[in-house]
Design brief:
The complex is a heterodimer of chains A (346) and B (660). By secondary structure, chain A is an alpha+beta fold. Chain A has 13 helices and 12 strands. In chain A, helix 1 (2-9) packs across helix 2 (23-33) and helix 2 (23-33) packs antiparallel against helix 3 (38-47). The N and C termini of chain A lie far apart (51 Å). Chain B has helices at 8-27, 33-48, 53-59, 61-67, 86-90, 95-112, 123-136, 139-142, 147-153, 158-171, 173-188, 196-209, 219-231, 243-251, 255-272, 277-286, 291-298, 302-310, 312-322, 330-340, 348-357, 362-372, 378-391, 404-416, 418-431, 462-481, 490-498, 520-531, 614-620, 639-651, and strands spanning 435-438, 441-444, 505-508, 545-552, 558-571, 577-582, 610-613, 621-626. In chain B, the strands form 2 sheets. In chain B, strands 3-8-4-5-6-7 form a 6-stranded antiparallel sheet, sandwiched between helices. In chain B, strand 1 (435-438) and strand 2 (441-444) form a beta hairpin. The radius of gyration of chain B is 27 Å and the shape is globular. Classes of the chains: A alpha+beta (346), B alpha+beta (660). At the A-B interface, helix 9 and strand 11 of A face helix 1 and helix 2 of B.
Chain lengths: 346, 660
């Protein structure tokens, strides 16, 4: 309350969340600044993965099977139930389930569980968690700038490998779903009552072309997608964020700011998150193969601080990103995939 | 996959990327630049690796500069850049540092050529800077990357070489040589013990001069004296015939021809401080002749000659054991040792006999062989090193090691107490152990775990190579024994570590707990009263005194605390009171910013001394010692003078240390 009033006195019109943890803060502040108490509830909805899924389900959006877990027993039961539903017999390999912390960003605390043993590796302090069935399909993310209830710019980010690499704009194969994706996002906006701002939902397309909602965040995406967009389209995505969040922005300003999706892109920009592949590393060494590629632009890797590589828990954090830019999305995709087989720390 | 260097298409592509990255950097607000920087640096790195990259970057220098490439770094203020630091940047293992230095130099080239008008540097300044950068990095032009450079820098090792080629095409060899020769003379005037890097530079000039493709212009003439001091000092070795030929020539010479040779070498040696390998051949040959020729070959004055005659047997033994073609440089040390007359101090001559007969420990032998190679043997190396350090107490350097305390101690002992230095050397070389006492308790260098330096030093003279690790551990141990005491530990360490003559009185102007300045007025008045002849009844400094200075860079920003020795305070030829001091750093000629430029020659400095006007020195001083039994009245220094000193302090290292 005090922050909100101080900000209002300073002439602030709107608060914009930048990180996951600031979503509810921004919601709380905006409910004061914009005199709309529902904004806080909306922010909470967008922060809690379990609530979010329920709301989506209520809105008629397809989601996978999910449940909340408060202790390890819940996880075991869910794993069994899911595989029972899939008509698996004892001894068949289990279909995995996904376990995610309720309120963390992106891959933080995201684990894939196949056997009950793995459940023991979840630390106590990560509970409660959200459990989801695994969807075999093509996962991708969407970034949508919304103003006055309408989508003003919609980007599709193609994951080459979840947690490793992403590029924009997507390949034509994925872009062909754009009309359907737009419909899905519009439904999402309606369901969540979003008038202005920015959403970052994740979807799966299954082999039969059906689209499943994964989750949605009300803040800029990780993996520097905003930088990739700037590289590709030349507009500052943060600037776009400010325009979209500000209810005072005029229609003309919005029109003038955003380029036309896909056709206005100068090329495809992608990045790759590096994880050391060896247990003991002593130095940073970008392979010549990467360094020499025409598409390679720069990296933000730093020399290792410790020789011993800590074992990754869950999806963990990458050690830095490599940036690529080029004309052909397929070359870029294969290039990003190829990086997974290279050592950047030796 | 298209390999680099496939030609113009690739360069154009990368330039497009660079321009795009530069634009987005320029568009970013100051707090956001950091995020955009890596793309620009990445693009620059790739462009610079391509043929024509340097020219392309130079053409974009102004845009890159104004986009904020250098923001927040030293390169943002080109007027403070120091040419000699460019060597480190260009050889850095960090590719970004190499790129920044390279782009900065290309930017200065654009400024020098009038293509880019810079607010902070003029075309002349830029040109001057570049010619010095070229001079210092000349080796990059002539030599392919060494194994070490390749391992550290990988392909980036080519970038500084490309840069040098591009620069030299524009600046020309003539200017470069002029600067290089100036730089060599500047270093030589400080008479360092270690002259290998100087000799390398001179060798490079000699190589360049013999290459008909390179037009050195008039610059070559100034280099002549340097080259000849090593490779062709006298008539009999003018054409650099090789030591064997020279020896046979000596055998056929009559007395007057020998006289000519001896005078030639002696003049050149005292002139440059460099010793030719032929000089060693001559000196060994003269062992079979009389003392007269020896004295001539060492270029001795009547003092030195007297000393030689008194101790002729010792000196002959020293020459026989220590002077070889590889260790020729110690001849200069021997000559100065004789000139100093320290052989007349009763313990010194016997101590030198001990050193001549000393059995080196296996560890000491191994260390010396490892650092200096197998020939001549470790004992000869050590003897040669000992002659150098005794002859040139102020020529000791700390190398690239954080051991200024130990280097200062060695220098001080050689200067003030050579007997003790020889004793310590015997302990270290024979016993692998040095024992010192701290407040009544003995400290052995063997028992102390670790020193300030984490690695054994490799880039030092033979005596330092053996002794410094011991001293460093003892110094660190003394520090550990002071843990928990209030105030700066040097109060107790310095007198115990350096010698009884270091004053037990101690004054510091920094509050150790907060790092803030304290009692600046009284500190300065006390320093004036202790050291300034106008305020201490004209008493010259008797013993060298350890002191601590706050070293600042050329922008007057604090760099670190540094140990120096105050040697004397006297009026210079311009009648200005100066402090003459020893700086264990390898090059004392440093710009400490705000107009404080440490002199090494031209202000009546003796070889190896650094000097500053009294008030400028006082402004960088933070620790000094004094004799507590002296009256210790504070000097009544003029308010104006005090304010001037305090102004220097407040504008430099004291700027953010003002007490609240």
């Amino acid at each position: 309350m005090e922050i909100a009033e101080t900000l209002r006195d300073m002439g602030v019109d709107v608060a914009i969340p930048i990180f996951e943890e600031t979503v509810e803060w921004a919601g709380a502040i905006n409910s004061v600044l914009l005199n709309n108490p529902r904004l806080f509830g909306q922010a909470m909805l967008l922060r809690d993965k379990a609530l979010m899924k329920r709301r989506a389900q209520l809105g008629g959006i397809r989601v996978g099977i999910f449940e909340e877990a408060h202790e390890r027993d819940d996880v075991i039961r869910f794993l069994k139930r899911v595989n029972q539903t899939l008509l698996k017999l004892d001894g068949d390999p289990n279909d995995p389930i996904h376990v995610k912390a309720f309120d963390k960003a992106g891959c933080l605390g995201h684990r894939v569980i196949r056997t009950p043993d793995e459940i023991d590796t979840i630390p106590d302090d990560e509970f409660p968690v959200l459990m989801e069935s695994h969807l075999d399909g093509w996962e991708f993310a969407v970034e949508a700038w919304i103003h006055d209830g309408k989508i003003r710019f919609l980007n599709i980010s193609e994951y080459v490998t979840l947690g490793y690499s992403v590029f924009v704009p997507a390949t034509p194969e994925l872009e062909q779903y754009r009309p359907e994706i737009t419909r899905q996002v519009e439904r999402l906006i309606k369901t969540f009552d979003i008038d202005f701002g920015f959403v970052h939902p994740e979807y799966f397309v299954t082999s039969d072309g059906e689209m499943y909602f994964g989750e949605v965040a009300y803040r800029p995406p990780g993996f520097k997608v905003f930088e990739l967009l700037e590289r590709s389209y030349g507009f500052n995505a943060y600037h776009g964020l400010v325009l979209a969040f500000d209810p005072k922005t005029t229609e003309d300003e919005i029109e003038a700011f955003f380029p036309k999706e896909v056709v206005d892109a100068k090329g495809h920009a992608g990045c790759f998150g590096v994880y050391p592949r060896r247990r003991v590393v002593s130095q940073l060494s970008v392979p010549d193969e990467t360094e020499d590629h025409d598409y390679f632009e720069t990296h933000e890797l730093t020399a290792p601080l410790a020789e011993k590589v800590t074992k990754r828990t869950a999806f963990g954090n990458h050690w830095g990103l490599l940036y690529f830019f080029g004309d052909d999305p397929y070359t870029l995709r294969d290039l990003l995939k190829r990086q997974e087989e290279l050592d950047f720390y030796i | 996959m298209s390999p680099l260097g496939s030609g113009g298409a690739s360069l154009d592509r990368h330039l497009a990327t660079l321009d795009d990255a530069t634009q987005s950097l320029a568009a970013a607000s100051p707090f956001g630049k950091q995020v955009k920087l890596s793309r620009v640096l990445g693009a620059l790195r790739r462009v610079l690796l391509l043929p024509g990259g340097c020219a392309a970057v130079r053409a974009r220098a102004a845009q890159l500069d104004s986009a904020g490439l250098f923001l927040g770094t030293d390169w943002a203020r080109p007027q403070i850049l120091i040419p000699s630091l460019s060597g480190g940047s260009l050889r850095s293992a960090n590719a970004d540092t190499v790129v920044l230095e390279t782009v900065s130099d290309l930017r200065l080239l654009a400024v020098a050529k009038g293509e880019y008008v810079h607010a902070l540097v003029s075309a002349e300044q830029a040109f001057h800077h570049l010619s010095q950068v070229l001079a210092i990095n000349l080796s990059l032009l002539f030599t392919p990357p060494t194994e070490a450079e390749r391992a550290q820098q990988g392909r980036m090792a080519q970038v500084p070489r490309e840069l040098m080629r591009h620069l030299v095409e524009e600046v020309g060899y003539e200017k470069v040589l002029e600067n290089l020769v100036d730089e060599i003379w500047r270093i030589l005037r400080q008479r360092p013990i270690q002259v290998d890097s100087v000799k390398q530079m001179i060798t490079q000039i000699a190589v360049a001069r013999s290459n008909p493709d390179i037009d050195l212009g008039a610059g070559a003439l100034g280099a002549d004296r340097l080259i000849s001091s090593i490779y062709g000092t006298t008539d009999a070795c003018r054409e650099d015939p090789g030591v064997e030929v020279y020896r046979t020539r000596l055998e056929t010479m009559d007395d007057s021809a020998l006289q000519y040779e001896t005078a030639g070498f002696a003049r050149s040696m005292h002139d440059t401080g460099l010793v030719s390998p032929y000089h060693a051949v001559l000196l060994r040959f003269l062992l079979g002749k009389g003392e007269y020729h020896l004295a001539e070959a060492l270029g001795l004055s009547s003092t030195g000659r007297e000393c030689l005659l008194c101790y002729h047997e010792l000196v002959r033994r020293l020459i026989y054991e220590a002077v070889h073609v590889e260790t020729a440089q110690c001849i200069y040390g021997l000559a100065l040792l004789l000139e100093r007359g320290i052989l007349y101090q009763p313990p010194v001559a016997p101590a030198l006999w001990r050193q001549l007969a000393l059995q080196l420990s296996p560890h000491a032998t191994e260390r010396l062989t490892q650092v200096f190679g197998p020939a001549p043997d470790a004992r000869a190396r050590l003897l040669a090193g000992m002659l150098s350090i005794l002859g040139q107490p102020l020529g000791v350097g700390q190398g690239d090691n954080p051991t200024c305390q130990s280097a200062r101690a060695l220098s001080m002992w050689s200067y003030n107490d050579p007997d003790y230095l020889l004793q310590t050397l015997a302990w270290a070389a024979r016993d692998d152990e040095v024992v010192m006492h701290f407040e009544g308790e003995s400290i052995s260098s063997r028992d102390s775990v670790s020193g300030v330096a984490t690695e054994l030093p490799m880039d030092l003279d033979p005596v330092s190579v053996l002794i410094v690790p011991h001293l460093d551990r003892i110094y660190a141990e003394m520090g550990r024994r002071c843990v928990g005491r209030d105030g700066d530990p040097h109060r107790w360490i310095n007198p115990e570590f350096h010698g009884w003559w270091s004053g037990r009185g101690f004054r510091i102007n920094v509050d150790v707990a907060t790092g803030n300045l304290t009692d600046l007025d009284e500190f300065l008045r006390h320093f004036y009263a202790s050291y300034h002849p106008f305020y201490n009844k004209n008493q010259p400094l008797i013993h060298p005194q350890p002191a601590g200075v706050a070293v600042t860079d050329s922008a007057a920003r604090f760099v670190g605390w540094h140990a120096i020795t105050i040697l004397r305070v006297a009026l210079d030829p311009q009648d200005r009171m100066r402090v003459y001091f020893y700086n264990p750093n390898n090059d004392s000629g440093q710009d400490w910013g705000d107009g404080v430029v440490v002199g090494t020659a031209g202000h009546a400095e003796r070889f190896g001394e650094a000097s500053l006007p009294f008030e400028q020195f006082a402004s960088r001083l933070y620790i000094f010692h004094f004799d507590p039994l002296e009256p210790g009245e504070l000097a009544s220094v003029d308010r104006d003078e005090l304010d001037s000193v305090i102004g220097y302090v407040h504008r430099s290292w004291g700027a953010d240390r003002l007490p609240a």
